[in-house]
Design a protein that fits this description.
3 domains; 22 helices; 2 strands
Length: about 550
Amino acid sequence: MRPPFKAGRARCGRLPLGHINRHFSLQPNVPGQGIIAGYTLSFWGIVVAIGVATGIGGALLTLLLRFAEHTSWSYDSGQLLDAVNRTGSGRRVAVLLGAGVIAGIGGLLIKRVRGSGAGEISEALWLAEGRLSFWSSQARGLLSIVIVAMGASLGREGAPQLTGAAFASSLSQWAKLPAWQRRLLVACGAGAGMAAIYNVPLGGALFAVEVLLGTLTLPVVLPALVTSGVATAVAWIVVPDRATYSIPTFGVTGSQIVWAVVIGPLAGLLAVGWVRVIAAVNVLKPTRWGRAVAPVVIFTALGAIAIAYPQLLGNGKDLVQQVFTNHLGLALLAILLVLKPLLTAACLGSGAPGGLFTPTLTMGVLFGALLGHGWAALWPGAAIGSYAIIGGAAVLAASMQGPLSAVVLMLELTHTADGLIVPILLAVAEATIVARVLGAPSIYSARLQPRGDARGSAERVGPLQPLAPGASASGGHGGSSQRVGAERITATAGTPATDPATDPADPATDPATDTADPAAANVPVATAPVIASSAGASERDGRLGGDEVIEDQQLHERE
């Protein structure tokens, strides 16, 4: 007796090789539906425009960051941490007090900015069909850059990500692209923002498709590569074309491999704790006038603590550089490992806008360096910086739940970590597995505002599965043709299967019908291979493919 899926396939008949769609492919990451061929020149024009706009936005935000840093801390060149070290205790408290006032008042004003759409990129992609408020997003990005420059313990990547995503959302809505393409381009814009400000084109593209979209199929990967590549190149007018961190090349040893295996699960546990702290403070964000008061209190406290520990100020870039080059003692590593994530969570919980990428990386490298010191005492021979890189990648991967993105980002941020790829992969895999086994969210899903219908909204929006050109996935205006295409495909492919064991007339049980003519099986050649989807669900709900029934593509294969 044949399995049911084979019986259904046999009942549809066999298509000779000459009738197979020219886009057909057995390769799993190639849908074989002509989706890429269906992308029109106007669609690719929008992709390039998003890359250019995001690159320009990233360059301008970088200039604003530098201006705000130099103005706040009175220096012309060098690193922010060096400038902070040259200031007195009063200056540190005063600057952070000012940052709190700006964050508080700015947050209240942004609430008054008109516009429709989600506030966070993850919320827009996973719950709101890719719609972001343009002006509100730009205002949040500007506010984020200014307060990070003044010393807020938050990431600077949030601003360019919002800029790129908001441009993508606006352009997609202006062009009346279908919902699945809008979501695709919003994720590409966010990844391009990260790529532009950190000079990580491949990492930015992978962040978009793996973390934000959750798929690595060609119709998704190619637009992400283009937007990130274009944005990075455009941002080179301001952002240096070099690695973010300048570190020596570390060779791999047996000690590092064994250490990676040992600390991988520990890195996962640390990431789980970190993400749950983020989720907790997200729930406790102040409301009404508390939005103006909380940042002032939290930021002033940060300034006071920075009198003794100036490394805590800013997103953590300079601190990571110091850890990579082993310029911090064991006791200071332990203190900073406790204080940095707590203060970052406090800044986020105050309602201030900002990213979590570099603060999470900072926590990871502090963790790796601290445990690396202890391991080096037992098994000497490897540099402390190498342990910091491995630990940073592991914690970052588990916190983002994006192992590929974390590995590539670490390689692009350093340009020298490729020698440690084996221990990095081992630690990253173990840490991510532990985080998933314990059911922790990511640092991005943890920031979603609590809402009773969140699960229903996520299920309605659905996963990223691009529609075939026959269902108006060509970069056009979508609409009724998409619904008609879905209905037509469903009508030809959605017939319930019968049990071949109880149906003697079923061609699946008759070898003589194995080479039956396709027309006799009532399967149009033009629709094979096809994806059948629930009529109208794709465009109406923003679902990328609807409730799919994938017909077996190997119709010409012998049993």
